[in-house]
Amino acid sequence: MLILAFDDYIEQARRLSNTLDFPLQKVYLHHFPDGESLVRLPPSIPEHIIICRSLNQPNDKLIELMLCAKTARQLGAKRITLLAPYLCYMRQDTANQPGEAISQQIIGQLLAELFDDVITVDSHLHRISKLNQAIAIEHAISLTAADEIASFLKQKFDYAVLFGPDAESQQWVAAIAKKVGFDYAVANKIRQGDTQVIMTLPAFDFANKPVIIIDDMASTGRTITKATGLLQKAGATQINVAVTHALFCGDAKEHILNSGVKQIWSTDSINHSSACIHLDNLLAKAIKQIY
Ligand code: R5P
Q1: Tell me: the pLDDT tens digits for 44-97?
Q2: Is the CB of 284 under 6 A from ligand 1?
């Protein structure tokens, strides 16, 4: 067994390798001036390998993963597990207009062709309930970071209201609330564009209470800032944010902090200054279960 990791996930892979006591090697990557990628694996690899890379900013990474997996097969790998704590393209699960690509299915098929197992965390599944409906392999596993986030929040708060900004977040906020024993409330959100959202608060008394906004991911941060504005008007005393995947594109982090959010916490699925909740135990347990 060997863990292979790209440089952008190397620290997390090192923790996983220590937890599992599996050796770790790096995938060498070079970007040519024209944007093409060169991928190099160790020339001698065992039959079972785990390739680690989170798939935020995914387009180059998907090509590099394909080069990596196909090269690993040529080098004799018989079972290749993809460990992608953040899995891309899972939100595009329907054609909103005629002719639009249903990316979840297309990328899912690609991953099913390349890998024997795919393990991810809090994958954004909306119209399907199981990851293997998108990636048709036996071990298409979407774990949840709910326990890890709940333990982290429990150490920081005796009480807070957990707030889900949209219907999809209900699954995560409810799971975390159950573990910490806090109240939770879920808003209604309509997305009108990449950075435009309309939100309505649920009937809940937020006045004089600390609130933690919970979501699977923050991308532009506009969902969080919209929620923050409404929660402030509703009298929340302090607003913090905990997300699984810190995509935080462009000015998202500044935008969120400027809106009045006190602190942002995320898991280490993606490298980010907010990433303080480690996932190695969760991931190691899942790997032990399939091997
Ligand atoms: C969508 O439903 C997700 O759970 C997040 O709420 C969304 O991706 C956040 O996007 P943004 O940060 O761009 O508002």
Answers
A1: 999 999 999 999 999 999 999 999 999 999 999 999 999 999 999 999 999 999
A2: no
- The DSSP code for 21 is T
164 C-beta closer than 6 A to ligand 1:
no
166 CB within 6 A, ligand 1 = yes
Token pair for 110: 């690609």
Best CA proximity match to 166, nearest among 224, 108, 247? 224
C-beta separation of 148 from 282 below 8 A: yes
Q: What is the pLDDT of residues 144-192, one digit of tens each?
A: 999 999 999 999 999 999 999 999 999 999 999 999 999 999 999 999 9
Strands 161-164 and 210-218: parallel
**CA–CA separation, 111 and 227 (whole Å):** 35
Tell the residue nearest (CA) to atom 3 of ligand 1: 217
pTM for this prediction: 0.96
Which one is catalytic: 78, 178, 189, 262? Answer: 189
Bridge partners of 93, per DSSP, are none
Tell me the residue length of the chain.
291
Query: With a 6 A CB cut-off, is 93 part of the ligand 1 pocket?
Result: no
The span from the CA of 168 to the CA of 182, in Å, is 19
Tokens of 250: 């462009």
